[in-house]
Amino acid sequence: MKTQVRTNIMVTATVNAPVAEVWNFWSDPIHIIHWNNASSDWHTTFSENDLRVNGKFLSRMEARDGSMGFDLDGVYQKVEYLKLIEYTMSDGRNVEVSFLPVGDKTMVTENFEAEQTNPVEMQKAGWQAILDNFKDYVEAYGKLKTLHFEITINKSAEVVFKTMLNEKTYADWTSEFNPTSHFQGSWKKGSKILFLGMDSEGKTGGMVSRIKENIPNRFLCIEHLGVINNGKEITTGKEVEDWAGILEIYTFSAKNGRTLLKIDVDSNEEFGSYFTETWPKALKKLKLICEK
Known about the structure:
By secondary structure, the chain is an alpha+beta fold. The chain has six helices and 15 strands. Strands 8, 9, 10, 11, 12, 13, 14 and 15 form an eight-stranded antiparallel β-sheet that branches.
């Protein structure tokens, strides 16, 4: 029997950031969800990554219209911190990713074995597009920062998840952001949802959003699409430049009847201090509600 010879493909990009930052953006699931797509009509809805030898990774990639999707997963074979990553995908193909410092920049090079279904040039173009998207994300990151908050709640992940999303208790714990806070819509994956509240003049404001991913008791990702101003939904134009496409991510880690709830929220500089002050208060309130 002949051994099948695979075609090797290489793509590369030089990222205007030091290697330590590039490595973090490449390996942190919170960042992977932001950049891991070849075009705007695809997105990564969920990612987990155990970056060590024999560690596993998984990214769920889907068309934005929900028409198709697939898991990209595999096992790490070699990890040299800030230098090299080698892994084998679940279909048996091998991939090597190298990180080379070039002054204050970093050259990222991927060598991967082609699959047998699609043309080699199509595969190269797809992988290059993802790598270019990664470069753009890293270099534009200064405009938005991902803020991280977490709290341990002495209840199961199921209780925390349900309490957080229940219509009444949602209004209770998010009242720290706005006393009239509430939502309209569904938490179902792919659904449109509105986050609403009244301002000091009695006008309705808030966010127009979509549920990017919902894995009950484990993971929730909200993608914000625009704003609500005086009751009107606005998803295009200058008014939504700072908000369209930003993510709000909830991760639930359960152990021994307790739950570590981690929140990762994209924020511009204007709202950074407000979120830093208010999110811990909201999470403490959620904890009190759950533990009653």
